[in-house]
Design goal:
mainly beta, 5-stranded mixed beta sheet, globular, Neuraminidase, 5-stranded antiparallel beta sheet
Length: 378
């Protein structure tokens, strides 16, 4: 693999006048070099003012135009903290957008409770576009027909996968409520919708490590060329005080009703995402922070549908040496260990059989922004 070219999706054009941080980019490849990327824009990673905005490229990523949010937040009934968005290109050519947002009316309440590690409860809503993302429908808020346990604050993770029967698959993670002082029980489950994202049910376990004192989260589902779905996962000790190498799961068939047991990948990553490149080739992009002299964002390749990866010489798409933290050293205790991270949440999508697009957020010169990188496979 090699990097062909790279650049900036969006960064603050007037840093001497205002603070604008751009994080959590999520791209969707359209046709003829057109790419639509969604990112969170706000004062900080968890700030209450965060909104989601679109950035569009019509030249394969070389230049980007800021198009603004898909939702008019002035019409929101409550103050929402917009967290992250994920796009799916459906078989009929329309675009589906999943948004996670949390009611956050009190700016003095932190999104993450520093004492409990719990989060404000998020809701998932779904929007459709028939014109390549220029105009979006009104959001449809998801209802869970099969609720989780009372201590769970479920959060939709990653994009929707459109299945062969027309139903939708959505990954859910079991975070805990903001003021819950109990233990974490953070694991990943699948839910299904047959009514355009209005209701979700038929919950199935995807990666549950309760019996092994382990948690699995930050999954970003990817559909393989044979219809099965592949997910790389951030694995950690159950109370999130120690991270392990990445694990992976894969659905046993295209229905996503049954999944393989989580298997270690020997990839020293945290947040990650994957892309199917065809013919059994799978790319994983990941944030590397622990136990390394080369922190940053890296890409590795598998030729056996994601079972094994060569990690001896990963492709570094963002060199974070000396740029690991925001001003202060990171702590070892969750959630404060997240508060000062300066890069992460990478995504990768296939452009064609030999090229992929990687996007990520990072910090350079006190400016937190979103970047892209085009990768060629040999």
């Amino acid at each position: 693999m090699k990097i062909l070219d790279s650049g900036v999706i969006f960064r603050n054009p007037l840093p001497g006048h205002r603070v604008i941080n751009a994080i959590f980019p999520n791209p969707c490849v359209l046709d003829e070099g057109e790419i639509l990327c969604l990112a969170r824009v706000g004062l900080a990673m968890y700030s209450v003012d965060g909104v989601l905005e679109f950035f569009r490229s019509i030249d394969g990523g070389q230049t980007w135009q800021r198009e603004g949010p898909p939702i008019d937040t002035a019409s929101d009934a409550v103050q929402f903290n917009y967290r992250v968005g994920d796009q799916t290109r459906l078989r009929d050519g329309s675009l589906l957008l999943k948004i996670n947002r949390a009611p956050h009316p009190d700016p003095d309440v932190l999104y993450f409770n520093q004492q409990t590690g719990g989060t404000l409860a998020t809701e998932a809503c779904y929007l459709r576009s028939e014109d390549r993302g220029h105009i979006w429908s009104q959001p449809v808020t998801a209802t869970l027909a099969e609720p989780f346990e009372p201590q769970h604050a479920p959060e939709a993770s990653g994009r929707v996968i459109e299945l062969e029967d027309g139903s939708w698959f959505q990954l859910y993670e079991t975070w805990k409520h903001h003021d819950d002082g109990g233990p974490f029980d953070l694991n990943s489950y699948g839910m299904f919708s047959t009514d355009g994202g209005r209701t979700w049910g038929q919950r199935v376990p995807v990666a549950v490590g309760r019996d092994e004192n382990r948690s699995y989260s930050h999954g970003m589902p990817t559909q393989l060329d044979d219809g099965r779905v592949y997910i790389s996962l951030w694995a950690a000790e159950s109370q999130l005080q120690e991270s392990f190498d990445l694990y992976r799961v894969r659905s046993t068939d295209a229905s996503c009703r049954r999944w393989t047991e989580p298997a270690a990948l020997s990839i020293p990553g945290q947040s990650s995402a994957s892309a199917d490149m065809g013919g059994g080739r799978v790319l994983i992009i990941y944030s590397h922070r622990e136990n390394t002299e080369q922190p940053g964002i890296k890409v590795v390749l598998s030729t056996d549908y994601g079972d094994t990866f060569d990690v001896s010489d990963p492709l570094v798409v963002w060199d974070a040496y000396g740029k690991e933290s925001l001003g202060v050293s990171r702590t070892n205790t969750y959630p404060s260990s997240h508060d000062a991270i300066a890069y992460g949440a990478p995504r990768i999508v296939r452009l064609n059989e030999q090229h992929a697009l990687a996007v990520f957020w990072c910090t350079q010169g006190a400016d937190t922004h979103c970047r892209w990188c085009r990768i060629q496979l040999s």
